[in-house]
Structures are given as structure tokens and as C-alpha cells.
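hi! just following up on the protien thing from before. the input was this:
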Amino acid sequence: MVCLVCCSLVGIWYVYEKHWVVNNLFGIAFAISGVEMLHLNNVVTGCILLCGLFVYDIFWVFGTNVMVTVAKSFEAPIKLVFPQDLLEHGLKANNFAMLGLGDIVIPGIFIALLLRFDNSRKKNSKFYFYATFVAYFVGLLTTIFVMHVFKHAQPALLYLVPACLGTPLFLALIRGDISTMFQYEDHPSDDDKKKTNNKSPKAKKVKGT
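and the predicted 3d structure came back as:
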């Protein structure tokens, strides 16, 4: 009940104020949900997806101004905003740098795949997950830095994709895990299989009646 009341108050705050703090709260929640719901089954698929969106992002940011215009004009929590005048205006800041949720979710599902890959190796180590997670933030900081220096919108995937792909692949090559990484196939967990098996008899029983 308390959670429902709090969520309702936050929702009302967003509807009436469109405040950047609430926007970011919703954006983070949507991004986490997206990473949880979307799954890659192997590294090859992840590489193809990231490389394709790498080209797509560069074209729509540098080639046209459509993406930037839509991001600025569309008032919905589809992006995280970072106030550039926070020190001067505090919570009333109104000059923002933006990060689309796709720039979080797409690399996020690839990093989640690497976490499952680490767990599958049963070496009690999350080496590739942590390395790529750190690389993601380095790429993100690079994006913000370049945006600040050139005062122009930047395609975040231009920096995030090389960081999130190059780091694990380079480390896997050095450690001799590259073939294992590319052969890895993510399969449903035992718990998921049990849930599926438990649902099947019920479906048959209903059909029979």
C-alpha cells in the first residue's frame, strides 16, 4: 500500500511538473525492465545487433537531425537527462544533456549475456561482466566529454559499442576464451524449464475437459 501511494505521488509529480529527477527515475525503471525482458542467446547475435545499431545511431545523429529533434521535443521518460547547469540552478536546472534509453538497454542486454556466460563457466568469477561493465561507463564518460567539448549531440553508441564489444573480445583473445565465448549458447535455466513443464499438464487437462 505504501509503495502504491509513493508511486502515485511520483506519477502525479511527473504529470504536473515533468521534472528531470522524476523523468530519470522512470527512465531507469524502464531501462532495468528492458534489460530483464530482452535476452540475447549468443555473442554472435549480440555483435551483429550492436554493430547494426552502431551504424544506425551514427547516421541518424550525424547524417540528419531527426533523432535529436525528436528526443528534445518528445516529452516522455524515453531518455535520461543530465543537467549541465546543476551547480548554478540546482533542481531547477533547464539545460540538459540527454542519453536515450536504447543506449542503456542495448549494451545492457549484451552485458547481461556476458554475466550468464561467466556463470556458465563455473569458475566463480564474473571477469567479463565486470570488465565490460566498467568499459561501458568509460564509453559513457567519453560520450559526455566529447559532447561537452564540441557542444554538439553525439551518437552514444559510437563510443559505447567499441567499448562493450572490444573489451570482452580483446580480453577473451588474450585469455584464450575466444572460441568458448563464441560457442556459448544461452539456454533457459532449470527453474524456467520446471515452470514450463508445470504449466503443460494443466493445459492438457483443461483441453481434455
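The first helix runs from residue 2 to 17.
The beta strands are 79-83, 96-100.
cheers
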